[in-house]
Amino acid sequence: MRVAIVGATGAVGHELLKVLEASTLQMDELQLYASPRSAGLKLPFAGRELTVRATPEGAIDADVILASAGGSISKEKAPAWVAGGAVVIDNSSAFRYDPEVPLVVPEVNGEAALHHKGIIANPNCTTAIAVVAVAPLHRAYGVKRMIVSTYQATSGAGQKGMEELLDQTRVALGGGDAGASVFAHPIPFNVIPHIDAFQDNGYTKEEMKVVWETRKIIGDESLQISCTAVRIPTLRTHSEAITLELERPATPEQARELLRQAAGVEVRDEPGAKLYPMPLTASGKYDVEVGRIRSSLVFGGGLDLFVAGDQLLKGAALNAVQIAEYLQENGALKARQKAEG
Description:
Layout (H helix, E strand, L loop, with lengths): L1 E5 L4 H12 L6 E6 L7 E4 L2 E7 L9 E4 L3 H13 L3 E4 L15 H4 L9 E3 L3 H17 L1 E10 L6 H15 L31 H14 L5 E8 L6 E9 L5 H9 L4 E3 L11 H4 L5 E8 L7 E7 L3 H17 L12
Parallel strand pairs: 1-2, 1-5, 2-4, 5-6, 6-7, 8-9, 11-12
Antiparallel strand pairs: 3-4, 8-10, 10-13, 12-13
Helix pairs in contact: 1-9, 4-6, 4-9
């Protein structure tokens, strides 16, 4: 079993290496690819060093390709990778809205991955974190309306976003005027209600991704969703405040018990002990933290909750590897035959 990472030197690429090291995915070979300027770099993996190669123009000799090099590269090169016999698990937005491409969060709709035609899409990080918490409640009680406000870390904009937060915070603390190049405004000691491009309806594309992708993953186009996406000055882990109107009333106690049994969820909900989801505790964690579960004061029988999830893990690298694991566990990845003699 040959696995390749395209975009190995980026923030998600580094997380893919860490997740693969602890993964149950059985593989015989791991190949690393990135831009030509990164060719020759060596990255640690499982006690040894692997050399990064320049991403080729044509096919890659691998069974599974974990792609995290951006939408333009995936759009251009993924068809050739598929033609060469690889299953492509793509972390960009290139194929998420293609009706022929499954958009998968294994805890929610893993079976959709089994019906791929060569490409499987990883959702937007904000969506992935939300649906892990919301899907079990939707299955049990039926979600009619969902209102989301996000608190998104700078790593959502990649390594350069984190660097801008650190560099410009030092500038601000030194008495200077913080600047901005990655973000629309200076990020230190600020929150910015602007992620991605504004659309004709007044929402940003990041906000609409939550709408489009949640419906596709959960499999309910009637679900009404509104989202406000906000960038905050943290390094890692996205948080979200979610309000749900339900078809069948649920109490906070029922929701907590259901979510305690849900895959990929850790319930942290003891306000009296100051225990609730936070980036500080959710960073580096595979599960999505869910807490502050309470009855909605707006929707009778509805719920309010707060979630925090590591967007570099469940929102990106971990989810991609979990898709590959799901395919292998269900016999949908061929095992590489060992040469005789």
